């Protein structure tokens, strides 16, 4: 069986399924997340070097996993997802054995502790991958918003945090790959959530304040919170930040173009001088032997100047690849072509979507991009300064050498 071709059909079918069941309330279980889940499942499957059949089972299960949820079934949606997968795979010519294995994987995510077999364990870990992700904070907020929308019920912050903490404390990754990669970050996420829960619980307790212990006047005491200003450290002047990055990037590009033009000027001027020397003087040095030494000085000046000018504009080669771990850790700059030009579109698309969903990742990438532009410009201008200095002093020494040689020859 051509599992690669069948998996392509699964991807196309689930993409259409998500489009048909689009719902503005669904902000966590989106098609973008389904692509991310399938991508992670593929990575883990490749890590374990699964054969074509098991690879297909893992990836197809990941694609179908949340389809039942999209139909409006919130509790035990896995059964509906397995049914949808079965109907499609039967019509696509999949074997009964493969269909049953995929259904088993999907249903196993309801109770991960009962999962058996590597494919089922991989899918369970992929489904809870976000618990150990650097994007945990944003993901759990989206999940809360989604559940409030589909259940039409407001979930209090304390109630939500308690539920997530309970889930995380009882959760364990089933594969060595995810245990090694995610356990540390998951514990950090859990500890931060517990700290916030304790902080909010403490802040919620009323603290009696005696009238004599405050400097507020009677008006302020009778109107609580009148002079309090909302303290929202996450609120940033977004437009100002974007303008700053845009201006900085534009300035860097202009300065880089100026550097390239300066290097081009030095290369052109010195090439012309070298051509003139080689064409007019070299052939006549037998008759003007006293000009050999000044000519050598001038040629060396031209060659050294050209070399440094070329180095200033010479691009630096990079590997052009990044890993999912770098995306999760927000350590890759996806705005620079050198980070991704050897990657597949699917992998780059995954990384970019993760970055767009997280403004800290996005701003961090912009900061890195600005920083490395500055480093490149610094190197360019350092080499250009050396090039100009060599040309300036070399020309001066050459002229002096020609003058001295001519005077010695005359007198």
TrEMBL record:
This is Pycsar effector protein domain-containing protein. Its main location: membrane. Coiled coil: none annotated. GO terms for cellular component: plasma membrane. GO terms for biological process: defense response to virus. The chain crosses the membrane at residues 263-282, 288-311, 388-410. It is found in: Cell membrane. One of its GO terms (molecular function) is nucleotide binding. It comes from Segetibacter aerophilus. It comes from the Bacteria. SUPFAM superfamilies: HD-domain/PDEase-like. The keyword Ribonucleoprotein does not apply.
């Amino acid at each position: 069986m051509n599992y690669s071709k069948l998996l392509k059909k699964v991807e196309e079918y689930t993409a259409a399924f998500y489009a048909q069941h689009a719902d503005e309330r669904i902000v966590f279980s989106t098609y973008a997340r389904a692509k991310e889940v399938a991508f992670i499942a593929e990575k883990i499957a490749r890590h374990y070097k699964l054969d074509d059949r098991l690879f297909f089972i893992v990836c197809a299960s990941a694609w179908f996993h949340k389809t039942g949820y999209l139909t409006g079934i919130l509790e035990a949606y896995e059964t509906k997802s397995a049914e949808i997968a079965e109907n499609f795979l039967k019509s696509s010519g999949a074997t009964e054995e493969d269909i049953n294995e995929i259904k088993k994987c999907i249903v196993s995510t309801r109770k991960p502790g009962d999962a058996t077999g590597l494919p089922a364990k991989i899918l369970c870990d992929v489904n809870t991958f976000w618990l150990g992700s650097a994007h945990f904070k944003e993901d759990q907020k989206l999940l809360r918003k989604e559940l409030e929308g589909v259940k039409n019920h407001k979930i209090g912050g304390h109630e939500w945090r308690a539920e997530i903490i309970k889930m995380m404390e009882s959760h364990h990754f089933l594969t060595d790959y995810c245990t090694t990669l995610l356990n540390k970050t998951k514990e950090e996420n859990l500890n931060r959530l517990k700290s916030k829960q304790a902080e909010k619980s403490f802040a919620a307790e009323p603290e009696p304040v005696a009238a004599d212990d405050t400097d507020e006047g009677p008006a302020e005491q009778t109107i609580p919170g009148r002079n309090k200003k909302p303290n929202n450290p996450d609120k940033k002047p977004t437009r100002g930040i974007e303008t700053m990055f845009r201006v900085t990037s534009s300035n860097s590009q202009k300065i880089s173009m100026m550097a390239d033009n300066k290097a081009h000027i030095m290369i052109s001027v010195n090439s012309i001088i070298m051509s003139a020397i080689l064409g007019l003087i070299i052939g006549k040095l037998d008759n003007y032997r006293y000009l050999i030494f000044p000519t050598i000085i001038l040629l060396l000046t031209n060659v050294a100047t050209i070399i440094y000018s070329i180095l200033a504009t010479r691009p630096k080669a990079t590997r052009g690849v990044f890993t999912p771990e770098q995306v999760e850790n927000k350590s890759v700059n996806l705005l620079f072509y050198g980070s991704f030009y050897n990657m597949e579109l699917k992998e780059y698309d995954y990384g970019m979507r993760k970055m767009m969903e997280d403004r800290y990742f996005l701003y961090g990438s912009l900061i890195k991009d600005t920083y490395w532009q500055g480093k490149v410009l610094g190197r360019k201008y350092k080499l250009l300064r050396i090039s100009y200095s060599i040309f300036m002093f070399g020309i001066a020494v050459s002229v002096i050498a020609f003058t001295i040689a001519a005077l010695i020859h005359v007198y």
